[in-house]
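The records we work with from here on pair a chain with its fold. Taken together, the tokens spell out the fold as the letters spell out the chain. To see the layout at work, look at the sequence and tokens printed below.
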Amino acid sequence: MKHFKLHHGELTGVAPGSIPTRSRLDSLSLVSRQSVLGILLVFLTLFSGNVWAAVNGAITSTLAAGDQVVLINTSGTAEFNGVSSNIGQKADYSGTPNGTCILTVEAGKSGSGNFSFKMSDGSYLAYTSTSTSSNNYLHTVSNPSTTAENQQVSWTVTFDNNNAATVRNVYNTNRYLNYNSSSPRFCCYTSGQQNVKFFKLAAKKPGVCQEPAQWPG
């Protein structure tokens, strides 16, 4: 009976082109599960670009300072695509975030228990109007320094069981970051509009890949 063994990572005793034997199949069990997951992640990023994970507020997928996130409306049709003329622009969403406007999550600038969302130009999403204002604008503030500015760029975030996030402004607690499907835009409303969902970057596309030690294992 011919014997097969694994030698320096290669299966010896198998003629080139031969049909895989049970011994060869059994040798696959020696491969590290973590290595397999790492290889699968490489192929996933090669063929699909960035990998995004839904944020649900649970301990397994909470929102935290340092996260890079995108915003999607709860009905899954629009992705936040920056701010122009005090209106949050939208890009079409069809199941996978395109990541054209990635926000960096920071610890809120108005005490504990809130977050700030920084855009690529260094400005922060904000609502700057007082409680007596009737406008629904989504503002941006660069280099917040006063107490009012720090409150304006800070938001509390809570999640429901469907991963929908209630994003409430600290400066004006009557205002929420919502999506208006009737007049497609992301702005700050008091009621009657859609909440948002957060998706955070789990793995980057080729060119900015994570080191193997950082791959999920």
Remarks:
- The chain has two domains: 1-30, 52-203.
